[in-house]
Amino acid sequence: MDFTYQTTHKLFRTAFKLGFGWEVTGEDNLPQNGPVIVVANHVSNFDPPILAAALHRKVHYMAKEELFNNPIADKVLKYYGAFPVRRGGVGKSALRKGLQILKEEKILALFPEGTRNQGPKLKKAKLGIVMLATKSQVPILPVGLLGTRSPIQNQVKVNIGKPFRLTEYYNKKLDKTEMRQAGQEIMTQIEGLLE
Fold it and tell me: Which residues belong to any copy of the Phospholipid/glycerol acyltransferase domain (predicted)?
């Protein structure tokens, strides 16, 4: 992490601890180096900065392209590791960019549901996440975010699970059923961290 990122990372951690009384569990589950796909549930706009502050490595994100329309937001988002993706799923350019980030042994964080979820149950994972995970064959780190919908009223809890892989889906052409099964495995890992 460069100096500015490291400084703002520490400021965010301190602010979240003081402002939200947050608790982070499982920090040791994040590999210290190498590529990782981080997957988490998504209920509010606070989720990306909370997730980034909880992890001790720089995080790169896919973010909806509309966020990049403002020139200032564009620069800030890109500095903090975000890159644009079209709504409706991971296109070829976003897939290539995600694979490149992982090839460079960095962290790519994704919200598999594809958008904020206001309901009580997790949605199905977008299939682009499965494609990234099976093509890259890197560890997947599940994270459960609790209390982020109203962080000022609730204690925020970040539960970091143990890394896992979708090895049974590697090196083969997956049909839609297999892709959905792999996506469900991802969502099950996240769901187990929401208690």
Answer: 36-148
CB neighbours of 10 closer than 8 A, spacing ≥ 6?
Answer: none
Q: What is the pTM of this model?
A: 0.90
Q: Are 144 and 41 in contact (CB under 8 A)?
A: yes
Chain centroid to CA 189:
13
Structural domain boundaries of the chain? 3-191
- Averaged over successive runs of 10 residues, the pLDDT of the chain (195 residues) comes to 78 80 93 97 88 92 86 85 75 88 96 80 90 96 89 82 97 94 97 92
Task: Give the fold, CATH level 3, of 3-191.
Answer: Glycerol-3-phosphate (1)-acyltransferase (3.40.1130)
